[in-house]
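User: C-alpha cells in, sequence out, please.
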C-alpha cells in the first residue's frame, strides 16, 4: 500500500518570476512565514515537539504565498498524472483531473525539536516543502532532521521507519496522506522551516 518508490515523489521547485533562484525566493518566503510563527504560535500542537506550527491556512492573499501556491501547481499535476488510471489502490482510485489545496501551514522546529509520527486524515496527498534546514541533515548516518516514513505514531508494535528522504532547501516532497510520517530529531545546526499542505481531488 505504501509503495514508497512510486508514491513518495521529490520535486525541485522553480523560482517565480522576479527571483534569481530558489534560494532568494526561499529567503523572502521564510521572512513572511517567520512573522506568522511569531503571531500564530500553537502552543498545544499535537504532533510537534520543540517547535511551532502556524494556526490558520497560509494567507493566499500575501503575494509571496500566492507565488508559493502557484509554484505548487506543476508538481501536483505531475504527481496526479503519474497515478494509475482505474486502479483500486487507495491513492490511485481517487485520481481526478482537478484538485484543491485543503489546508496549508508552516512548521518551525528548533534544535531538539521533532515532528512526531502522524497521518493527515483530511488529505489525499500530503507534502513537505523545505525552506531552511539545520546543517545536521547532511549526516546520512544519524539522518537528523530527515523525513521518515512508515513508523506508527503510537508505540504498540515494533515497526521502525522503512523509508527516509534527505531534505534540501527548495525540495518539495509529495506522498499519500495516510502514510505515517515524522521527522528524525535533530539537536544542532539551526532551525528547520517547512511549509506543508494537503491536496484533495475535485
Ligand atoms: Fe505531516
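Assistant: Sequence out:
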Amino acid at each position: 500500500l505504501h509503495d514508497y518508490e512510486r508514491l513518495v515523489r521529490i520535486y525541485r521547485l522553480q523560482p517565480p518570476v522576479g527571483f534569481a533562484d530558489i534560494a532568494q525566493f526561499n529567503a523572502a518566503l521564510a521572512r513572511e512565514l517567520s512573522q506568522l510563527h511569531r503571531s500564530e504560535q500553537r502552543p498545544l500542537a499535537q504532533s510537534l515537539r520543540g517547535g511551532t506550527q502556524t494556526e490558520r491556512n497560509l494567507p493566499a492573499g500575501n503575494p509571496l504565498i500566492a507565488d508559493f501556491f502557484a509554484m505548487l501547481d506543476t508538481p501536483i499535476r505531475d504527481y496526479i498524472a503519474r497515478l494509475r488510471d482505474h486502479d483500486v489502490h487507495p491513492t490511485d482510485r481517487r485520481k481526478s483531473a482537478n484538485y484543491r489545496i485543503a489546508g496549508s501551514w508552516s512548521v518551525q522546529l528548533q534544535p531538539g525539536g521533532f515532528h512526531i509520527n502522524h497521518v493527515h486524515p483530511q488529505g489525499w496527498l500530503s507534502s513537505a516543502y523545505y525552506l531552511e534546514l539545520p546543517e545536521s541533515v547532511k549526516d546520512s548516518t544519524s539522518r537528523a532532521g530527515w523525513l521518515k516514513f512508515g513508523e506508527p505514531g503510537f508505540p504498540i508494535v515494533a515497526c521502525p521507519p522503512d523509508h527516509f528522504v534527505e531534505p534540501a532547501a527548495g525540495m518539495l516532497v509529495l506522498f499519500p496522506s495516510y502514510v505515517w510520517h515524522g521527522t528524525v530529531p535533530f539537536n544542532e545546526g539551526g532551525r528547520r522551516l517547512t511549509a506543508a499542505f494537503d491536496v484533495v481531488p475535485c
